[in-house]
Specification:
Shape: elongated
Distance between the termini: 38 Å
Number of strands: 0
Strand content: under 5%
Radius of gyration: 25 Å
Largest sheet: none
Number of helices: 2
Order of helices and strands: HH
Number of domains: 1
Structural class: mainly alpha
Helix content: over 70%
Length: 94
C-alpha cells in the first residue's frame, strides 16, 4: 500500500522544469533591462520572487488538501467494507 507511483513521464517533468526556468529567467532579464532606476528594478524583482514563492505555496496547499481528501475517502471506504464484511444477514437482531 506504500508504493510510490510517478504518473508523469520524464518528458513532461523536463518540459515543466524548462518552462519554469525559462519563464523566470526571461522575466528576470526583462526586469534587468528595463530603462528605469535600480530601485524600480529591485521592487519588480522582489515582486517576481514573491509571486513565485506564493505560487509554490498555493500548489503545495492544493495538493495537500487533495491528498487529505483522498486519504479520508479511503478510510471511509475501508470502514464501510469492514461493516459489510462483518454483517451477517442471517444473524438474529437483538
Amino acid at each position: 500500500m506504500n508504493e510510490k507511483h510517478n504518473a508523469h513521464s520524464t518528458g513532461w517533468v523536463v518540459q515543466t522544469w524548462l518552462s519554469f526556468a525559462l519563464a523566470v529567467g526571461v522575466t528576470g532579464i526583462g526586469i534587468w533591462h528595463l530603462p528605469v532606476d535600480i530601485w524600480v528594478k529591485a521592487f519588480m524583482a522582489m515582486g517576481l520572487v514573491f509571486s513565485v514563492g506564493s505560487t509554490f505555496s498555493l500548489a503545495k496547499t492544493i495538493r495537500d488538501q487533495h491528498e487529505s481528501e483522498s486519504l479520508r475517502k479511503r478510510i471511509d471506504e475501508a470502514r464501510v467494507n469492514r461493516i459489510i464484511a462483518e454483517h451477517d444477514p442471517l444473524k438474529p437482531a437483538l
